[in-house]
């Protein structure tokens, strides 16, 4: 059997929508992107959405627009994709890592306050694997110390914790539409926020700091544009946005199938005594990734691949990557729980298109390897 780690769910209607854009004059961000932004904001119940070309860009712009830069410290987790900490470095600030909870892999909120200094300006919690962090407590701490909260919600569009959704309590929340994400345009991202002025800054910063986007420059009566801020080239295209609209409409139906598969994995792994990352209490998980924790991970991983099962490692902790070790002097043992998970974690296939036969094969193969 051959089971890919991920198969996207782009269907003929999505392709037709993208085709329509391709047959139109305007391929970059214009009306289709506006439609996606409106629908994404509506889905989350947040006032503003600004689509960009990646979650990395969304994080970078959030930090800049919220005034975080040189000499500032930003608290985050070492158990994430490197993009989270890299965005902090790109903004000129310094990431300050806090170890994670053993059950969920999410930032251990109880350890945040002890790392706050006079230089701390923001917290970036990551809703790892689709499970929201304890965002209520994070917001409380942030308010006490006058810090910004930027959610790295690359894994979590559909999730909820104690009825709170991504973007609800933070200054901004950042999403990814990278190739393996729950909705995808190959590459892509979005920022949501409540504040109109902040959203307007994001619109400008995603296109060099220019006060008119390309469609209004070319399709309306000519008027001069002005560059007001030093921005970036981070805009998305209508081709990408066209692919996302239909996927967003199907997101809850797809989540139901993701849940079905995840519940099956949980039931079987409980029975077999195989450890896995848990969903916190009072949480509706976006079920982005299903991570088992095994000893001799690299051996198990090779055997799964040999049996035709696609796998991933999310993640080996950021502080142990060469650049972070060389630049900041991090070493083994600095964040023991992130390292514990980082040494054991394997992400199994989890997407709506998986068949029951395939999930049974995955469980049986892992059972035989783990024996
Ligand atoms: C937790 C996390 N944050 C940020 C990113 C960066 O997203 P993008 O590839 O859209 O820049 C990813 C991407 O995989 C991610 O998993």
Task: Please describe what this structure looks like.
The protein is of the alpha/beta class and about 375 residues long. The protein folds into 2 domains: about 10-250, 3-Layer(aba) Sandwich (Aspartate Aminotransferase, domain 2), CATH 3.40.640; about 250-370, Aspartate Aminotransferase, domain 1 (Alpha-Beta Complex), CATH 3.90.1150.10. The chain is built from 13 helices and 12 strands. The protein has helices at about 10-20, 30-45, 55-65, 80-90, 135-145, 195-205, 215-220, 240-250, 250-270, 295-305, 320-330, 335-345, 355-370, and strands at about 50, 75, 95, 120-125, 150, 160, 170-175, 190-195, 275, 285, 290-295, 345-350. The strands form 3 sheets. It has a 7-stranded mixed β-sheet, sandwiched between helices. It has a 3-stranded antiparallel β-sheet with strand order 9-11-12. Helix 3 (about 55-65) packs parallel to helix 4 (about 80-90). Bound molecules: pyridoxal-5'-phosphate. The site of pyridoxal-5'-phosphate has 14 residues, from helix 3 and helix 4.
């Amino acid at each position: 059997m051959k089971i890919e780690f991920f198969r996207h769910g782009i269907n003929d209607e999505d392709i037709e929508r993208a085709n329509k854009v391709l047959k139109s004059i305007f391929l970059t961000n214009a009306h289709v992107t506006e439609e996606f932004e409106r629908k994404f904001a509506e889905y989350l119940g947040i006032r503003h959405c600004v689509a960009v070309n990646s979650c990395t860009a969304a994080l970078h712009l959030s930090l800049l627009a919220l005034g975080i830069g040189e000499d500032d410290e930003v608290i985050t987790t070492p158990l994430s994709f490197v993009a989270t900490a890299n965005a902090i470095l790109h903004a000129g600030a310094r990431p300050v890592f806090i170890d994670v909870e053993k059950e969920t892999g999410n930032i251990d909120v109880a350890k945040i306050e002890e790392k706050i200094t006079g230089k701390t300006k923001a917290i970036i919690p990551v809703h790892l694997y689709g499970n929201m962090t304890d965002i209520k407590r994070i917001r409380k701490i942030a308010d006490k110390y006058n810090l910004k909260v930027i959610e790295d919600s690359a894994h979590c569009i559909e999730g909820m914790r104690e009825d709170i959704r991504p973007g609800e309590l933070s200054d901004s929340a950042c999403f990814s539409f990278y190739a393996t994400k729950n909705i995808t345009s190959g590459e892509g991202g979005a920022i949501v926020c409540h504040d109109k002025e902040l959203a307007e800054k994001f619109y400008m910063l995603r296109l060099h700091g220019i006060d008119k986007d390309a469609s209004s420059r070319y399709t309306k009566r000519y008027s001069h544009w002005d560059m007001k801020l030093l921005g970036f080239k981070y805009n998305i295209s209508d081709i990408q946005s066209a692919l996302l609209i239909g996927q967003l409409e199907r997101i809850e139906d797809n989540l139901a199938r993701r849940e079905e598969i995840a519940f099956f994995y949980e039931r079987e792994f409980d029975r077999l005594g195989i450890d896995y990352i848990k969903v916190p209490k009072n949480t509706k998980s976006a079920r982005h990734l299903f991570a088992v924790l095994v000893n001799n991970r690299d051996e198990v991983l090779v055997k799964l691949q040999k049996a035709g099962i696609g796998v991933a490692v999310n993640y080996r902790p950021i502080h142990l990557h060469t650049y972070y070790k060389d630049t900041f002097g991090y070493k083994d043992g600095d964040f023991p729980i992130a390292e514990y998970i980082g040494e054991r974690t394997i992400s199994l296939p989890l997407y709506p298109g998986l068949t029951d036969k395939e999930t049974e094969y995955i469980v049986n193969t892992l059972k035989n390897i783990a024996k």
